[in-house]
Amino acid sequence: MNNLDSYPPILRLPNNQSQNLHDPNDKMDPNPIQDPDPIPIIDLKSLNHKKLDEACKEWGLFRLINHGVPITLLEQLQDLTKQLFSLSFESKQEACNESPITYFWGTPALTPSGTAITRGPQNINWVEGFDVPLCQLSQFQHHLPSLESMRLLLMDYATHLSRIATTLFEAMAKNLELNLKSTKSYVSEKTGLVRVYRYPCTEVGWGMEVHTDSSVLSILNQDDHVSGLQVLKDDQWLTVKPISNTLIVNLGDMMQAISSDIYKSASHRVKVEKDIERISICYFVFPGDDIVIESSKYNPFTYNEFRAQVQKDIKALGHKVGLARFQLNQDC
Ligand SMILES: O=C(O)CCC(=O)C(=O)O
Ligand SMILES: [Fe+2]
């Protein structure tokens, strides 16, 4: 099978045609990969609270080492992700019919039922993905062998990532001296999800436009061989180098709100390469449904209210407004 047949039709443009697409970020050229790697490193085995606090305040993103996830599991996930995406577009679509796993492309913005919130061909993102709600993983089986293997691996992976998210969140809450009733329900296992992505090659366009995540924390297992993720730090775009056996943690909007803006929800984006695909596996964790986020900067809100507002804004304006909608003394 031609690799192009595995791409969603809208992402099958030959490179030279893609130049007509509007590129929303084209004025912001990134720096080349920096050496040495400037991204803060946090060691989960011997957690340094001060270093963690600084990374959360100054970057909103860090590299995690000694995370305890077996390297074989990280590599197996990457291999399986590549295998899964190399299937034909139609078989990926069909495999997700009547499944809690959603297959999507052209945008990472989905409604809770898994429908893509599209904004016309001008604004497509060069990405396809599977959206996997973790709490439903044990309740079904898949007939497509690579999807079924993915389901089994993700059950194992989710246990590790939930442990990591809880450890990090508890350390952050302690650093911030937050008086939370149950830290665990801010990084709820019930609402966690994994997204596996493939970014097809193109010359112009972005895999993902500039955004902040809506999560409390996002934990990324990125392609060991292909870079693409960039983070905004002090008005400069920096490449987050792929380094094997490390995970990238970024703080999302919920963490920024919980911390009353002391911590940062990192602005980031994904660049695509013109001649090599990239894959990534991203875990997102959110507050439980009954958690009201109270802070000195925002009106109290739940994550569900935040998500509904984000979806409304994307549909109406074409982009997420995010935390600004909930700021104290705002009428919008
Ligand atoms: O694929 C990546 O490297 C990052 C993905 C991302 O930013 C997201 O899913 O929000
Ligand atoms: Fe993101």
Notes on the protein architecture:
The chain is α+β, with helices and mostly antiparallel strands and 332 residues long. The protein is 25% helix and 20% strand. The protein has a single domain, classed as Jelly Rolls, CATH 2.60.120. The chain has an 8-stranded mixed β-sheet with strand order 1-2-10-7-12-5-4-3. Strand 8 and strand 9 form a beta hairpin. The longest helix is centred in the middle third of the chain and has 31 residues. The structure holds 2-oxoglutaric acid and fe (ii) ion. The site of fe (ii) ion has 4 residues, from loops.
Any key phrases for this structure?
332 residues, alpha+beta, Jelly Rolls, four-stranded antiparallel beta sheet, 6 helices, 14 strands, 20% strand, globular
